[in-house]
Specification:
The chain is about 30% helix and about 30% strand. It is an alpha+beta fold and about 230 residues long. A 4-stranded antiparallel β-sheet has the order 3-7-8-5. A 4-stranded mixed β-sheet has the order 4-6-10-9. A two-stranded antiparallel ribbon has the order 1-2. Strand 1 and strand 2 (about 20-25) form a beta hairpin.
Length: about 230
């Protein structure tokens, strides 16, 4: 059975106005957030996504949420277990039945180092939300034992869909919890993941600890960021 292609999301999301500035694409918005020109507010971006008709088409086409993503990742990360050795494959085959092709030029993001097994196993989890990836990258550094004011390098991956053969699906999230800012897309099939560029960015950026609905506390953190740019084929 042939696969459908998800409609082009970035074409309907951009140009986008953010704090009285206009951004033509996801890359320029991410860079403005990293350079402190606009605030990285994941809730505001999620609100704009939820109001977007094309994004509603994306998540309506999906039947899976974060529990499935978490369970799938855990199965593939388990140590060798002869009794359960076929379960990850069966699980993956079932998920693959629901995948669609991602549109050309779609941009997604991922916080932290690209998993070593991503190319081998042909799956990893990304987000459409540039503010979420910034907060996520900072949290990874903090969770690794660093102080809240981060002085070492955070890693952000910007991934561009560069072929018509990339398979995945968006994850549906609970709109009433903090899960809603994840805006994740599970990548489940591709031919090649290629690093094409990387930039070191050292600048004061605004880190938001966002509580519940709209209240937020801003913490200014001097953060050294490594921005890696990938093509997904």
């Amino acid at each position: 059975m042939s696969k459908a292609t998800l409609p082009k999301l970035d074409n309907s999301l951009y140009p986008q106005v953010w704090e009285q500035q206009t951004f033509d694409n996801a890359q320029s918005l991410l860079m403005a957030m990293l350079l402190g020109k606009v605030s990285p507010d994941p809730y505001l971006f999620t609100k704009q996504l939820q109001a977007n008709d094309t994004y509603q088409e994306w998540i309506t086409a999906s039947i899976f949420g974060r529990y499935i993503q978490h369970s799938f990742a855990a199965l593939y990360g388990q140590s060798e277990d002869s009794f359960n050795r076929d379960i990850p494959v069966l699980f993956r085959n079932e998920l693959m039945r629901h995948t669609q092709y991602l549109p050309l030029e779609q941009i997604v993001f991922m916080a932290g180092n690209m998993p070593k097994k991503a190319r081998q196993e042909r799956f990893f989890t990304t987000t459409l939300n540039p503010a979420t990836v910034i907060v996520g990258a900072q949290k990874l550094k903090h969770d690794a034992g660093k102080s809240l004011v981060i002085n070492r390098q955070a890693v952000i991956n910007q991934i561009r869909v560069a072929s018509k053969r990339v398979l995945g699906f968006p994850l549906r999230h609970n709109k009433r919890t903090s899960e809603r800012i994840r805006n994740e897309v599970l990548i489940l099939g591709f031919d090649d993941l290629r690093l094409v560029d990387e930039h070191h960015i050292s600048h004061d950026i605004m880190h938001h600890k966002v509580e519940q609905e709209t209240a937020s506390t801003a913490i200014l953190a001097n953060t050294d960021v490594l921005l890696r740019c990938y093509e997904l084929r």
